[in-house]
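Hi, does anyone understand the following?
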Amino acid sequence: RSVTASLALGAGIASAQSFNVDSLAGVLSSTNSVRVRAEVVGRLNALPLAELTPAARSALVRLLDAEADHTLPGDPQPIAEGDEVYDEYVVDLAGGVLRLDDPASLRAMTRVGLQTSHDVQRWVASFGAQSLPHLDAVWAEQPAERPVIVTTWAFMLGVTGPDALVARDRQRVLTSIMGAAEAYPIAFAGAARVGSLVTLVPSLSQIAASSPSEIARNRAAYAAQLLAPARDALTPAQMLAQTLELARGFCVRPGEGNDARANVHPNRPAACGKVRGALNRARAALGEGRTDDARTELQSAASVAEQASTDGVFTAVEAAAVRGNVEYLLARI
């Protein structure tokens, strides 16, 4: 079918009283025009889901794959700079594929859809560990997508049921979120809120006090304020357990999961071992009612983290997480 015929069909869709869904979906693979594809996607999205045939569903998924891989031919009438038709079309396409709930679209949705909505981010996150390789690839290849990947990681921490992350993957995701704090502080603040990550309150406070960006300072301060009541609702034992999980995340040892950060500084493994050991001993002591011993171990963990920050072994947000959570726990036990 020629481009002219496709354009004519696109223009006629609005006035047609009835049409064959499969024929309509077939236009998606036969036209080079973004505007025609946008019109067809919009018409398919307007149909009740039950009326979409298998062929129409497959056509939408294939189109998303093609957009993700940049394999579609160029539009004979290129979109003018400032024209938002392509961006709106991608939003509609991602939304249309999202309602199909088709696992076959996971890779393409990760590459194209994350920027379009929180609903897409939640859907990608719902696959748990299956999504991690796709997110890793996009992180490496598409730097502009990194802030929304940080948010998607946070949604992933809240997944329950059979796709919930196992401890090792949770720690990996926490590592990734913490690692994004300095480069993407606004996304980091959003992730803390999305994931209800109360152990990040001290790190958020650190960003709120020191970031050169006023927007980042405000977002971090607001996130810390919103998370404070949830933190206060936890018992000291629960708070300590979450602090230990966070430390295990950013304080990985060589050979543990995503251990790239373990080799950032030659003294990092030793410092991490001391922090994790002290927090583990504090947790055991608190569980046994040995409050004084727990306090001693907590103070030891904070002291090691502070020195590690001074020596450049820990980042400022990492040290703040340990020191701030310890200070909070000492005030409650």
In short: Confidence is low (pLDDT under 50) at residues 1-18. DSSP finds 17 helices and no strands in the chain. The longest helix spans residues 268-287. The CA atoms of residues 253 and 270 lie 9 Å apart.
